[in-house]
Amino acid sequence: MSAPQARIANLTDLRHAAARGRKSLLPNRPKILVGLATCGLAAGADEVYEAIRDEVARLRLPYLVASTGCIGWCSQEPLVDVRLPHKPRISYGRMDAPKARELVQGLREGNLKTQWAIGLLTGHDNPVTRTRTRYSKQSARLDGVPRYEDLDLFRYQVRLVTRNCGVIDPASLDEYIARAGYLALNRALTAMRPEQIIDEVTGSGLRGRGGAGFPTGKKWEVIRRQAASPKYVVCNADEGDPGAYMDRAVLEGDPHSVLEGMTIGAYAMGASEGVIYVREEYPLAVKRMLDAIRQAESVGLLGDNIFNSGFSFRTRVVQGAGAFVCGEETALIASVEGRVGEPRQRPPYPAEKGLGGKPTCINNVETWANIPVILMRGGEWYARLGTATSKGTKVFCLVGAINNPALIEVPMGITLRQIVYEIGGGILRGRNFKAIQTGGPSGGCIPEAQLDLEVDYESLTQAGAIMGSGGMIVMDSATCMVDIARYFLTFLADESCGKCFSCRKGLQRMRQIVTRITEGLGSEEDLSLIEDLGWMVRETSLCGLGQTAPNPVLTTLRYFRDEYLAHLREKRCPAKVCRELITYRIEATLCDGCGACVRVCTSEAILGEKKKVHTIDNAKCIKCGSCLEVCQPQAVVVS
Amino acid sequence: MGERIDVDEILRDRWERPENLIAVLQEIQSRFHYLPEEALCTVSRRFRIPLTEVFHVATFYNCFSLQPRGHHQVKVCLGTACHVRGGQVIMDKVLRELNLPTGGTTADFGFSVEPVRCLGCCALAPVMRVDERTYGHLLQSRVPKILKGYRLPALATV
Q1: Nearest neighbour of A335 by CB, restricted to B22, B92, B135
Q2: Which chain B residues have a beta carbon less than 8 Å from that of A318?
Q3: pLDDT in tens, B33-89
Q4: Are B56 and B76 in a shared domain?
Q5: Residue A3's pLDDT band (boundaries 50, 70, 90)?
Q6: What angle, rounded to 10 degrees, do the helices at A183-191 and A255-269 form?
């Protein structure tokens, strides 16, 4: 977009870029920001963005209209933010094109449209430099609009990895630099020896954020000591766990933070080449990353002799091809090499023999994005956050049956209860909490009794789940735990690469048995058979996929055995989910005969004249639930 | 579908090394919406990789298809969050609307439908993507209208 820039070779050049970045970050004219990450776009943010640009151009207003990444307030997408010079930033939620136009017109007349405002942002912390940029000099208040720091959703958050998401325009290198970007790389290359960097990372206690939690500093140390060359650094952005999208949010909202982290790591370990492996379902993340690499190359922040230090580093993007198992590091390497993504025996670990048989450091997106902060603030500072064994913060995707689905970054050690009830605002429609599923298909379902668990790697493992990449899916009384077990087994049986017989066949058998239970055809012996099979798959599979695959089934059996028994003994699905065990009917006292259900029923199973009570013919009903969705008086009942 | 299968253009600027195999297959897939047998043979010859191995890769990864796909790719998300909020019900509705009881591609090659395991917009669940566009907070009742929007232009291009 911008003209070709001069090479950034030292601190002075960085300061110049930062000055340019500040001009667009905090301009002396009104600025309108639209969240244009994938989730915003899915909610219609592109139309909102177009409408605002149109309206600003039509009215010839001197406003700056820009895009930004995800601030994590997912339930309010599409989000629009307005900042007038020297004033706090106002967030508007659930915008659409007509409202957006009206907002622009209002701004021109000095009307802030506070009725649509959902939050007031008074400034931004920068964890890299430990500074806070205040948006206005006076104490900021706006009637009826809560301040971010007073909202439960944001009160507990400590945003290190997501420090720039929703703040900067991800397409602007200057804005990243204005937020102290590439300062850590400059310090690393010009003032630190590789050993010092690894000491800081080790001292920080940072553990791999991809899920397994291996100490990052230790891994770096092993690779540093390898004599073979070349060495590689890899960013694992094959975020396959359903229910987790923090990596996508960082890649889309702040791609340079990952590049900076990787470059620092490469210098510390003596690597000269990098690979960013992004799953193919994330086209926008790929685009953002490619743009960021091009920008960094054009100013010399990637390439030869970075900051005139003599250190050279290049990186490229490789797109996945749709295989969950490629998140496993040896499978990922096979895929980067153009082969089928099957894991292999470890050791040797990729740290010794990875890409092309050379030492390779594979870290997750979130791990890399932590590095610049750790380097600038010191490992000791980072280690003060979190619990005894798990330091720092963790980004979680809080979704499912919850009032405020959100992308949050919180210190390790926060309780699940705080996450669900305070940050998440409790359960949807006032229903009862049933379980929280963490760690994706390798994780487990944690019940109400364990909600006071302080979240860290060890506590979640003890509960039968895992930290995983950080997806948290909240389940309420309308979720059937047997159905969830069947869901994960289906997922894993599909995604098992098939190399190990036990994983391939064991999961298929488990799926068969659990499916039988959901159909009301199981027997009580099935439960011990599942447990036996689960144990076998765990003990005899080669990679993490198989070793953790039984977790969802085993935790649901451990905590929700009564639901299995209801399916087995009474042929009843307590959550009214399993299709073979439920029927639909219309409650005669509630039906007003509007006929909405008749119009949507594609199997012609609903009988009755207009204005008269309708009935469902169970022989024809396919239990699709269309009538339930449209019935205003809620006369459709599932039993 | 009488199009000549010509992959020379795709292969022209490619270094024919094994690590580029997946990327080349991805380009062929996006160009033809599937991997024609002829193209796989050409790739095998040019890359000096046995056809069985090319076939192995082509059948291992979900993004490849050996059958021709439709003009519009409908991907219904069946990630965990979508599952909890009725993703399967949306999937069934899409299949009923397009008269595809077991999934796959419509007879007129207008649509191909497949499940996808998480598009990463879990807060908007249930979600589906048609080509490049993602639709969130889906209800069964919205599905016919969304699909209708793609039906007409598809007919126009045939």
Answers
A1: B22
A2: 23
A3: 899 999 999 999 999 999 999 999 999 999 999 999 999 999 999 999 999 999 999
A4: no
A5: low
A6: 10
The pLDDT value recorded for residue B14 is 75
Q: Do A243 and B122 touch (CB under 8 A)?
A: yes
Instruction: Compute CA A259 distance to the chain's CA centroid, rounded to the nearest angstrom.
Output: 19
Question: What would the mean pLDDT of A211-218 be, rounded to a whole number?
Answer: 94
Query: SS3 letters for A329-361?
Result: HHHHHHHHCCCCCCCCCCCCCCCCCCHHHCCEE
From the list B136, B29, B41, B89, the residue with the least C-alpha distance to A40 is B136
Alpha carbon distances (Å) from A456 to A209, A468, A488, A556: 11, 11, 23, 21
Average pLDDT, stretch A275-302?
Answer: 97
Q: Which domain holds residue B129?
A: 72-157
**Which among B60, B119, B121 has CB closest to A341?**
B60
> What's the whole-model pTM score?
0.95
Q: Chain A to chain B, count of Cβ pairs less than 8 Å apart?
A: 151
The packing angle between helices A246-253 and A365-377, to 10°, is: 60
Two structure tokens written together for A48? 């909102």
* pLDDT at residue A108 tops 70: yes
pLDDT at B12 over 50: yes
The pLDDT of residue B156 is: 46
CA distance readout (Å), B144 to A41, A600, B116, B150: 21, 10, 20, 10
- A242–B79 C-beta distance less than 8 A: yes
Q: Are residues B43 and B88 in the same domain?
A: no
More confident residue, A531 or B5: A531
The Cα–Cα gap between A498 and A510 comes to: 15
The answer to whether A273 and A313 have CB atoms below 8 angstroms apart is yes
Mean pLDDT of all residues in A388-406:
96
Report the alpha-carbon distance of residue A14 to residue A10 in Å, rounded: 6
Q: Is the pLDDT of residue A51 over 70?
A: yes
Please tell me whether residues B85 and B136 are part of one structural domain.
yes
User: Which domains are seen in chain A, by residue range?
Assistant: 20-150 (3.40.30.10), 182-382 (3.40.50.11540), 393-476 (3.10.20.600), 481-569 (1.20.1440.230), 583-638 (3.30.70.20)
